[in-house]
Amino acid sequence: MKDHLQTKDWGLGLKGHVIIAGPCSAETPEQIEKVCLDMKKENMIPDIFRAGIWKPRTRPGSFEGIGEEGLTWMEIVRNHLNIPITTEVGNAAHVELALKHKVDVLWIGARTTVNPFAVQEIADALRGVDIPVMVKNPMNPDLQLWIGALERLHDVGIHKLAAIHRGFSDSYDKRFRNKPNWSMPIHLKREWKGMEVINDPSHIVGNREGLLETAQRAINFGLDGLMIETHHDPDNAWSDAKQQVTPAQLKQLLSQIDFKDTLGSENPSERLNDLRAAVDHMDDQLLDLLQERFSMIDQIGAYKREHHLTVFQADRWKFVMESRTEKGVSKNLSEKFMKELLYCIHEESVKRQEKQLREAAAIKK
Ligand code: PEP
Ligand code: MN
């Protein structure tokens, strides 16, 4: 098991969920100051202040970030808020400059995580440096690529890691700018124990209206914090104007979220233990049933083989899908879940029967 320091151990004095806020991009010293002053006025001081210095834009010509000069403005944040600062790095030169200007936490953006060469270049530039790094998910829903980027950093000695779920590019789903895929962060947390995942509803939703719902879902799923783009004058922001909120709106948003306790290492209550024991028992029963079902499937396979029938029978499949889905829906299971479950079971059945056919053919030879 890889060792990994949770954000709570990063020396930031965090207790609950980590809140990261600040503008999409650093624009001018006045802008940084105004955001800080408004945060102060609203008593809405995040745990970490974010600001993009180098902006990976889809097409050239739009604002590509203010560059190194912006890093000198981070002093303004330190003076007003006295909190750590984070910015995105996309190559070794960015790392060098960010370290020179004492940025406290780095993050790797979605467009960089997809590229192992770039991630390795960043990791190499960080060898021997003790700085926390957050890795956004890649643009495409590829968990291994996400884990791979975290591993590249871990392998050079960066152990203060976190991941950021910012959704996945999906041009067909117009509800989101980047569609969330909640199973990804959950899988990540399962595969890499102790890995904290922060949610970035701003880039998932792409507007202000949907932030609350997505942020709440992230907390419900057990994610460990939120990164929300915050600007004193969002409509006139130089990048991502539609999705940024003011510090006052951020405060309002956070006050509406029901932050749950992640159980962490504390002892789950007796009631929870009882419920979990019941679920364990049911899972055993489910597995016994599945085992029995597949043994029937094998018998059907033997019959098909004897009678020279194909493994896949379209009419039967259609009937099974429709009748079971209908039954499942009437039992309050979602249609999507029923279809995925049935596909999964059917695929395994077909594979088993086809294997039987192959084995029988091999014996004949
Ligand atoms: C950002 O955080 O401003 C950003 C560019 O994010 P992403 O890499 O998620 O697109
Ligand atoms: Mn942005």
Give a summary of the structure in a few sentences:
The chain is α/β, with parallel strands linked by helices and 365 residues long. It has 14 helices and 8 strands. Strands 1-2-3-4-5-6-7-8 form an 8-stranded parallel β-barrel, surrounded by 5 helices.
Could you outline the blueprint of secondary structure elements for this entry?
Elements: E1 18-22, H1 29-41, E2 48-50, H2 68-72, H3 74-81, E3 85-88, H4 92-100, E4 105-108, H5 110-113, H6 116-125, E5 133-136, H7 143-155, E6 161-165, H8 183-191, E7 197-199, H9 201-205, H10 211-220, E8 225-229, H11 247-256, H12 270-306, H13 314-330, H14 335-364
Parallel strand pairs: 1-2, 1-8, 2-3, 3-4, 4-5, 5-6, 6-7, 7-8
Helix pairs in contact: 1-3, 6-7, 12-14, 13-14
The site of manganese (II) ion has 4 residues, from loops.
Give a written overview of the molecule.
InterPro entries: Aldolase_TIM (IPR013785), Chorismate_II_sf (IPR036263), Class-I_DAHP_synthase (IPR052899), CM_dom_sf (IPR036979), CM_II_prokaryot (IPR002701), DAHP1/KDSA (IPR006218). It holds the Pfam family DAHP_synth_1. There is one protein chain. 49% of the residues lie in helices and 9% in strands. By secondary structure, the chain is an alpha/beta fold. It folds into 2 domains: 7-256, Alpha-Beta Barrel (TIM Barrel), CATH 3.20.20; 270-364, Chorismate mutase (Chorismate Mutase Domain, subunit A, Up-down Bundle), CATH 1.20.59.10. Strands 1-2-3-4-5-6-7-8 form an 8-stranded parallel beta barrel, surrounded by 5 helices. Helix 12 (270-306) crosses helix 14 (335-364) and helix 13 runs antiparallel to helix 14. The two termini are 47 Å apart.
